[in-house]
Amino acid sequence: MIKRERVYGEVNHERWLVSYADLVTLLFAFFVVMYSISQVSESKYKQLSTVLEQVFAKVEGENSTRTPQAVPQHLSVLKQVESNILEALADFVNSNDAIVHGTEAWVEIELNANLLFDSGSAVPTPRAQQAFSKMAELLAPLGNEVSVAGHTDNQPIRTEQYANNWQLSSARAIQVVELLVGQGVVPERLSAIGYGEFRPVADNTTEAGRLMNRRVVLRVSKDRPKDSLAAVDRKPAAAAGGARPELPSKVVAPVRLQDGGLLFTSDPPPQEEP
Q: Which of 102-106, 221-225, 254-258 comes out lowest in average pLDDT?
């Protein structure tokens, strides 16, 4: 048998240079691209800078000549009311028995009912009369609508005067309204609502929570009452015989709200659609 001689090829030990050359080429191309996009046209830059300077100069000129926008009247009135009430009820606020806060639509005064009424009673205490007398002095000159809401905790009540917390909270709200009317607030601006225990702000399972839930809340709205009788001229009219025109009488009746409260109002109930 003839044996063939094995042919050995020459080994190229410099193949790595091919891959290295490809890598260098790619890096070169990458840096060329990065350099090209980093160059800014000086002429275009100056043009953009000039335009921006003109725009900002125009805006600054308009701001310097523009007169400050007047604050809406109702907002300034509400802010003043909030400040005055905070000052008048400083003792209550400092002892955490009153909270006064507001928005663009209303100012809300929340008072601890335990300081205004005895337990299970709607007869105002002397301190309540003092507090509402101060508020009436502030509210009487205004024409804004004021709603009074009574709230209780969830402890059941059944007395000779009140069969449930709805009646108690409504009676307390009505008493506050009568105190304000007695101090000069126009009654057509006022409304009384009783929510009972159905609008809690704290946990009724604790004594501290029940204490927070027993409260009376006054809300001074930015709006005037709609179709108010206050719009009727109450000065003696020069009618025949000097008789004074009679104001239409309305009957105040309770209306149960969908959220569980009672609203005492003289407005007719809404008619149900057929």
A: 254-258
